[in-house]
Amino acid sequence: xxxxxxxxxxxxxxxxxxxxxxxxxxxxxxxxxxxxxxxxxxxxxxxxxxxxxxxxxxxxxxxxxxxxxxxxxxxxxxxxxxxxxxxxxxxxxxxxxxxxxxxxxxxxxxxxxxxxxxxxxxxxxxxxxxxxxxxxxxxxxxxxxxxxxxxxxxxxxxxxxxxxxxxxxxxxxxxxxxxxxxxxxxxxxxxxxxxxxxxxxxxxxxxxxxxxxxxxxxxxxxxxxxxxxxxxxxxxxxxxxxxxxxxxxxxxxxxxxxxxxxxxxxxxxxxxxxxxxxxxx
Length: 281
What we know:
87% helix
């Protein structure tokens, strides 16, 4: 429509055209809204189920980590207690001093290095596996040494028991760690599935809300324009009539207000600066 044709339209005709447009929107939106609501109803349980599966597996993984770490730490304490007993037996002459190659060996140093890595960097699954393997190897060497002794000292028997208990704890830690590795791919799958389902749910929810807002806006627009068609257009023509009488338009009045506000702000700022200078003097 050309500008001349638009200007020739009466307020009543223009209002009816707008009303017709709103009515057409109000007729088409409900069908789309129903489809989006149905999509949302289908997406919500899928996203919820995916989240429950992911969270359930995360809880299982957390428990396995706790079990592994607890068993690993228990094994370490038992090993240290057994080593103290061995050193005590050696110092009192109960047995001949052990071979330095394994008593104060590189394997023990490796264990401390890996433990430091676990504490400082949290490690990864390979670091955990390496720590458990090195610990088991160290305990196995100590157990071999214990088995080669023929003394029946009470401390000797206690030391042997602690090494055996430490080995059992490491076996528990190893099984828990292997279970963690088995869950790794499953955990990634459930997490990605949840992200996909949740993204789909959010899209459906956003579309539903936009259509609901559009329907509400159209219905309010229908009521608004219908009231004017049934009544009069004087309220809508206030600005037009004001300009016809030679008064400034709405745009001009806004510019005037902004200019006055700016002048008032500058005036206040100037007075504050002058006041500050007076106090300094």
